[in-house]
């Protein structure tokens, strides 16, 4: 008689297969970041160098900055483990632990959404807020309520944006030379002039094509819509993220801002396109809103979240005082992810054809519509369309 | 649609290994052990140690809910009552019978003169006297389904075998195609159903080949080909596909009864020859078995005899790094000592080396478990609610709908035993209630 191993059904697990499992998902995630990182480097480094505005070493800086972000959060997490757990003071268990906790990612993402001329110490501060406060103090990977990178970004944005701007801000050395930019990103320009007009909003930056490619001023990696779309296709194909979350989020912003533009007086399709291609929306939708730990787990919850993100982004961006809007909506939804998950999971379990479910879904959609309507009505009083005032 | 599409996942069948050799009869083990347990009901033993028993003689009774007689599967002397392993993962009392290899039959086993003249009531009574219970895994007493108050017009034979590795239904049908149709025919007659359906996976065209010649003899019986997904053989899903009707708790609400293929075959034997449930087909397979194959064995046969017939374990098998699985790989149970005895519901034993363990990772919240769940539950929410001890939330999240298919754990990239957590939540409801 032989003794056999214990185990729990099901005995066949996809995670056991080669090229499967959480570690592979994280690897695929980082692969997905590559086109975006490369674009950020091209736009803020290589291109500026080719235009003769920075030295060879300075050309490398954007890339180094992003990688440094990853390295910093990696080291911080390692240090945190070593300090808090004596068992993790040897190299092998420590490396095992870090490799299952995906320490690189928060810092990488954080650096990608910061302005080019963010001082390194600010990056370190942001990484600390993200990795240590946002992730490790909550219990580490899998237990964080907030998306660590996002929390770091918000912390930096709320406290140190002045320092960053004093240090040079978002504009690279080629962009500062362009008079038409006048030192403003598309969204800060909109916040200043409060006018929905193609010539005033888009023309200074070229055409919408520039928005699509990403050769407009903005944080390091957020402007590269095309690169982000490539990442989106890859990440959806590898099932790293749920394909519909970014689509619904961006789609909602598109539709609501189209209506908003029309109500204000310019119903051209350029405005919704401008809305989804400027600022951090694409980046936030593809890489932040899909962060699994801090968002609802069931598909209906993800749909609900994406809809809310869409209307809140429009609200914060055009009505609130935050020209960005994406970060704020995301962090708010992090807080509501759990109740939203519970709410939607119950509807899903009971079935969509149940009366109670229909009522709940209707109420939710009305809530979303109300936010959108509020944003549009408010904006109507704040913005004007049409030419030169 | 994004949030609720048709469910099921294709899983590699791994079935060819146990189809290489034909079904082998292994009808005369030296000892058989009749477990004194059916489902969760303990049986009352009605024979004494030292007594001589014949094949088909009643040796124990299932009393209480779903009463059934339980029969000896070989002839010989009752030599002991002792604890042996059961597919539920526990050791339970069993009647040990030492085979005298004479094959002496109980007097009740005689050919039925005119089976076609039996009334519905007589047929259902035979189901009961056969000690017949679902051989597919649940072990539900068959006659109970046939006492339904609601009208039944469809009887479905579930030969889908949607779990990987298992081929015993396939092999049994391959050998006894007509017996299957006969059993179904009598089952239909037991409730006056006009429609009989044999369901199996579309890729098993061989079953179609062996059944087709007999189909004209049994009017009202048709074939249903199911997709190669798991859990295509789930009762509710099957009924939905075949009758286009849904139901809440009992299949009879949709006018349907589902039975396992082998259950139907035993019933055919009972109706025509008065042979009760004494044998079944079983698959012995897995990467840890030298020559996997199927057997027809008396209930109570030691599995180690069968493994020996398969040439034993592969050379150099490290049993401590291997699972000995009673039942299918998706829903079965790990047995710790390889001393299992075949009982009514055991359709397979799988010896499967455990894949190299990866580093354990926390739940990453990816939601793949919720995506995969065929009944649209959100396992992570159920898990958290039950950890909080929040029974109300567990109920609201409909943990009771979980059919234990195992898909949530199957798809989890972090190797979380999430099925098990949902199970625990279900237990919490039962305790709370
Ligand atoms: S239990 Fe597994 S599948 Fe479910 S959300 Fe967590 S990691 Fe994903
Ligand atoms: S085991 Fe239960 S919760 Fe898990 S997928 Fe199957 S039915 Fe859903």
Instruction: Evaluate the radius of gyration of chain A.
Output: 22 Å
Report the strand count of chain B: 18
Mean pLDDT of chain B: 93
* Helix residue percentage of chain B: 25-40%
CATH fold annotation of the domain at 115-273 in chain B: Rossmann fold
Alpha plus pi helix count of chain A:
17
The gyration radius over C-alpha positions of chain B equals 22 Å
Low-confidence stretches of chain B: 1-5
> Major sheet of chain B: order of its strands?
1-15-14-18-16-17
Broad structural category of chain B = alpha/beta
Task: Output the number of helix runs of chain B.
Answer: 13
Essential attributes:
heterodimer; A: 389 residues; mainly alpha; 2 domains; two-stranded parallel ribbon; 17 helices; globular; B: 433 residues; Rossmann fold; six-stranded mixed β-sheet; four-stranded antiparallel β-sheet; 18 strands
Structure description:
Chain A has helices at 22-50, 56-84, 91-99, 104-113, 120-135, 148-159, 161-166, 186-193, 198-201, 208-213, 225-237, 244-264, 270-277, 281-288, 299-319, 326-350, 355-382; strands spanning 195-196, 384-385. Chain A has 389 residues and is mostly helical. Chain A has two domains: 12-170, no CATH class; 185-217 and 241-389, no CATH class. A two-stranded parallel ribbon of chain A has the order 1-2. In chain A, helix 4 packs parallel to helix 6. The longest helix of chain A is centred in the first third of the chain and has 29 residues, at 22-50. The N and C termini of chain A lie far apart (92 Å). Chain B has 433 residues and is an alpha/beta fold. Chain B has helices spanning 120-129, 142-145, 168-175, 177-191, 205-211, 235-243, 261-273, 303-309, 368-372, 379-387, 391-396, 407-411, 418-432; strands at 24-25, 31-35, 37-38, 41-45, 52-53, 58-62, 68-71, 76-85, 91-99, 154-158, 195-201, 221-226, 256-260, 279-285, 293-298, 322-326, 333-334, 348-353. In chain B, strands 1-15-14-18-16-17 form a six-stranded mixed sheet, with helices on both faces. In chain B, helix 3 crosses helix 4 (177-191) and helix 4 (177-191) crosses helix 7 (261-273). Classes of the chains: A mainly alpha (389), B alpha/beta (433). Chains A and B meet through helix 1, helix 15 and helix 16 of A and strand 16, strand 17, helix 9 and helix 12 of B. The structure holds iron/sulfur cluster (SF4) (2 copies).
């Amino acid at each position: 008689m032989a003794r056999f191993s214990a185990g729990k059904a099901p005995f066949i697990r996809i995670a056991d297969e080669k090229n499967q499992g959480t570690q592979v998902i994280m690897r695929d995630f980082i692969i997905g970041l590559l086109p975006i990182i490369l674009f950020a480097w091209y736009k803020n480094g290589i291109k500026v160098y080719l235009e003769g505005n920075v030295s060879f070493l300075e050309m490398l800086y954007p890339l180094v900055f992003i990688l440094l972000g990853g390295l910093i959060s990696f080291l911080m997490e390692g240090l945190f483990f070593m300090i808090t757990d004596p068992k993790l003071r040897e190299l092998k268990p420590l490396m095992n632990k870090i490799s299952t906790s995906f320490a690189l990612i928060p810092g990488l993402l954080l650096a990608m959404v910061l302005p080019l001329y963010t001082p390194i110490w600010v990056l370190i501060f942001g990484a600390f807020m993200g990795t240590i406060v946002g992730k490790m103090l909550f219990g580490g990977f899998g237990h964080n309520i907030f998306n660590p990178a996002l929390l770091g970004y918000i912390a930096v944005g709320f406290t140190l944006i002045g320092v960053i701007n004093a240090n040079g801000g978002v504009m690279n050395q080629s962009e500062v030379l362009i008079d038409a930019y006048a030192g403003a990103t598309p969204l800060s320009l909109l916040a200043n002039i409060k006018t929905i007009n193609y010539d005033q909003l888009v023309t200074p930056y070229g055409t919408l094509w520039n928005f699509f490619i990403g050769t407009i001023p903005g944080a390091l990696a957020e402007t590269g819509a095309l690169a982000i779309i490539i990442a989106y296709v890859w990440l959806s194909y590898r099932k790293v993220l749920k394909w519909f979350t970014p689509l619904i989020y961006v789609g909602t912003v598109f539709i609501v801002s189209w209506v908003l533009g029309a109500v204000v007086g310019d119903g051209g399709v350029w405005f919704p396109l401008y809305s989804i291609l400027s600022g951090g929306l694409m980046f936030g939708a593809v890489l932040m809103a899909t962060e699994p730990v801090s968002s609802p787990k069931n598909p209906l919850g993800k749909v609900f979240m994406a809809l809310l993100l869409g209307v809140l982004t429009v609200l914060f961006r055009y009505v609130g005082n935050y020209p960005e809007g994406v970060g704020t909506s995301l962090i708010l939804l992090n807080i509501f992810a759990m109740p939203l998950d519970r709410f939607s999971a119950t509807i899903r379990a009971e079935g969509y054809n149940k009366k109670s479910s229909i009522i709940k879904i209707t109420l939710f959609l009305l809530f979303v519509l109300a936010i959108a309507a509020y944003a549009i009505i408010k904006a109507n009083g704040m913005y004007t369309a049409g030419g030169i005032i | 649609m994004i949030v609720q599409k048709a469910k099921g996942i294709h899983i590699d069948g791994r079935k060819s290994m146990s189809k290489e050799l034909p079904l082998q009869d292994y009808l005369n083990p030296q000892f058989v052990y009749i477990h004194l347990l059916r489902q969760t009901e303990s049986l009352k033993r009605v024979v004494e140690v030292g007594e001589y028993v014949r094949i088909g003689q009643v040796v124990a009774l299932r009393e209480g809910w779903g009463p059934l007689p339980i029969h000896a599967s070989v002839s010989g002397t009752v030599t002991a009552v002792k604890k042996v392993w059961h597919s539920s993962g526990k050791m339970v009392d069993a009647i040990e019978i030492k085979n005298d290899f004479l094959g002496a039959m109980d007097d009740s086993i005689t050919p039925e003169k005119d089976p076609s003249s039996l009334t519905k009531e007589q047929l259902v009574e035979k189901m009961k006297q056969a000690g017949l219970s679902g051989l597919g895994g649940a072990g539900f007493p068959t006659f109970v389904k046939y006492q339904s108050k609601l009208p039944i017009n469809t009887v479905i034979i579930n030969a889908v075998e949607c779990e990987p590795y298992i081929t015993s239904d396939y092999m049994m049908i391959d050998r006894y195609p007509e017996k299957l149709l006969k059993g179904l025919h009598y089952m239909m007659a037991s409730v006056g159903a006009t429609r009989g359906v044999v369901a199996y996976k579309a890729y098993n065209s061989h079953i179609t080949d062996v059944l087709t010649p007999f189909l004209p003899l049994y009017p009202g019986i048709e074939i249903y080909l199911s997709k190669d997904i798991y859990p295509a053989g789930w009762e509710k899903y099957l009924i939905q596909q075949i009758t286009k009707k849904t139901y809440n708790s009992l299949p009879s609400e949709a006018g349907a009864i589902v039975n396992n293929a082998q259950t139907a075959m035993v019933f055919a034997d009972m109706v025509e020859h008065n042979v009760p449930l004494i044998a079944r087909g079983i698959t012995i397979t897995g990467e840890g078995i030298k020559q996997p194959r199927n057997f027809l064995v008396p209930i109570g046969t030691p599995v180690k005899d069968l493994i020996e017939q398969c040439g034993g374990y592969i050379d150099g098998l490290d049993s401590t790094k291997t699972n000995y699985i009673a039942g299918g790989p998706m829903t079965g149970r790990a047995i710790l000592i390889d001393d299992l005895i075949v009982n009514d519901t055991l359709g397979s034993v799988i010896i499967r080396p455990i894949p190299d363990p990866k580093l354990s990772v926390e739940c990453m919240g990816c939601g793949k478990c919720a995506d995969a769940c065929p009944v649209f539950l959100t396992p992570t929410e159920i898990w958290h609610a039950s950890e909080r001890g929040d029974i109300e939330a567990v109920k609201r999240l409909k943990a009771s709908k979980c059919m234990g298919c195992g898909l949530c754990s199957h798809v989890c990239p972090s190797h979380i035993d999430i099925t098990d957590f949902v199970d625990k939540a279900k237990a919490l409801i039962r305790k709370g209630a």
